[in-house]
Amino acid sequence: MNSLLRFLDASPVNFLAVKNIVAALEEKGYRRLDPCQPIGAVEAGDRLFVTKNDSSVYAFEIGSKALADSGFHIICAHCDSPTFRIKPHAEMIGDGGIVRLNTEVYGGPILSTWFDRPLTIAGRVIVRGKDAMTPVTRLLHVQRPLLQISNLAIHFNRQVNDGVKLSKQKDTLPLLGVITDELERGNLLMNIILKELNRHGEVRREDILDFDLYLADATPACTFGAHDEFISSGRLDDLSMCYAGLQALLASPASATTKILAIFDNEETGSQTKQGAGSPFLASMIKRLAMAQSGTEEAFYQAVERAFMISADNAHAWHPNYSEKYDPTNHPVLGGGPVIKFNAAQKYASDAASAAVFAEICREAGVPCQRFVNHSDVAGGSTLGNILASSLPLRGVDMGNAILAMHSCRETGSVADHDYALRAFTRFYQQ
Question: Which of 43, 220, 311, 390 has its CA 20 to 30 A from that of 199?
Answer without folding.
Answer: 220
